[in-house]
Amino acid sequence: MHPNLSFEQAPPISVPYRFLLAAPWFGVLAGILLAWVGGDVLGSRWTPEALALVHLIAVGFMLQAMSGAMFQFIPVAVGGNVSRPLLVANVVQPLLLVAALLLVAGFLFGAPALLSAAVPLFLVGVGVFAVVVLLALWRTPATGMTIWTMRLALAGLVVTVLLGSLLAEALARGLALPLIPLTNIHLAWGLGAWALMLVAAVSYFVVPMFQLTHPYPLWFARGFGPFLMLLVLIWSGLWLREDTSLAQASGVLLATACAAFGGITLWLQYTRRRKIDDATSLNFRVAMIALLVFAVSAALMAVQPQWAEDPRATVWLGMLAFPGVFVSTISGMTYKITPFLNWLHLQRLGAPIAAVPNMKKMIPAEAMTGQFRLHVLALGLLLAAVWLPALTRPAGLAFAVSCAWLGVNVIRALQNYRRFRDQIRASVLHH
Ligand code: HEM
């Protein structure tokens, strides 16, 4: 295993698993919603369904998986001590689950009371999570860009949730706030300063380790996070001043930064020492290609504003970002995290190391690559459905089935953990 992993501080296995088990089913809900409503639901970013879909993925699928992964990653990979992980997870996860469902229902049914009810749950859930994780990240003796970038990502999450709460209250109470600029600021914090920032932080560590690539160039790992944060701040300032044309210009810089991250990650994959095309590498490749297409599309829309006039153009960007970049990355990571969790906790049971099953035995490889292929098909259909509404229903169905398959693969991994654990316990007792 990697020399920099520290196993002693790992939280109980149920802590990360509960989040990883829950996440895919929000994707299933998103797919079902799309298939149910069908028609021209993707015609504009402002339909109630579009807002519900965005948040099923953002605060359902992504937030669950990303917070669960952080509970595991911070102690094991960067040596941070997350205090009382079981208690924190017991509090945070139900809050986030209920908050996500309330927010989505609030959008879908146009129900101000539900939007308002989601706000305190998000504030407490994310607040507790952020404090505990920031403390762990602050106290760790380890250094390096993964930790710094992760701190930035957490700040990004906090600002995203504060802005989202403000927007939700503004919608619920009819407050006279500039909704469009505030939404543009909220989404840059959510997608850039939180989600992409976290993917970068984790990638500096896991891409070389799992995909056997060279490390990210040091100048890049040092500069990317702070530069991204600076650009999001500039973008926010310009939108606050409602300086649309300069804001769009800063959008081109943001797109360029995204393209640089995507391009470098693909280049690292291309030049790696050993080519392994497992489900993780493949998912990362698709995610980075989606990120490049996102960046080129966003830059083109900023320099040719007539292209951005079509309301579908922004939905196209959303489709590339959510199912394209983040669902793919998270699926790829899930396929590394769950077998590793199993292996880690099995080898702590006291059996000789040779008795601990190989990580490859935790989820069958065909189940992972099969699910990956279905995900790519679903992504293709979703992207096409933005322009061809007749494809909305099949795209939604394919996405629902693909996410359900991911969910079943995680359940299978957990079942295998239990099976191997019982076998090992029985053999330890026997001897
Ligand atoms: C944490 C990750 C989050 C991400 C990545 C995210 C992302 C987004 C995106 C992309 C949009 C624009 C949707 C569109 O243009 O169709 C949006 C809008 C919105 N978000 Fe979030 N969001 C997050 C969390 C939240 C939270 C926690 C809340 C509420 C407590 C929230 C409330 C809202 C509201 C109310 C809008 C719509 C504003 C309007 O219609 O004017 N978001 N979000």
Summed up:
This protein has helices at 14-37, 48-78, 85-109, 112-139, 145-173, 179-211, 218-240, 244-270, 279-303, 305-308, 311-346, 365-387, 392-430.
What are the key terms here?
single chain, 431 residues, Cytochrome C Oxidase, Chain A, 81% helix, binds protoporphyrin IX containing FE
Description:
With 431 residues, this protein is an all-alpha fold. The chain has one domain (14-430): Cytochrome c oxidase-like, subunit I domain (Cytochrome C Oxidase, Chain A, Up-down Bundle), CATH 1.20.210.10. The chain has 13 helices and no strands. The chain has helices at residues 14-37, 48-78, 85-109, 112-139, 145-173, 179-211, 218-240, 244-270, 279-303, 305-308, 311-346, 365-387, 392-430. Helix 11 runs antiparallel to helix 12 (365-387). It is globular. The model has no long low-confidence stretch (mean pLDDT 93). It binds protoporphyrin IX containing FE (HEM). The site of protoporphyrin IX containing FE (HEM) has 27 residues, from helix 2, helix 4, helix 5 and helix 6. Residues 45, 50-51, 54-55, 58-59, 63, 103, 118-119, 122, 160-161, 164-165, 167-168, 171, 179, 183, 186-187, 190-191, 194-195 line the site of protoporphyrin IX containing FE.
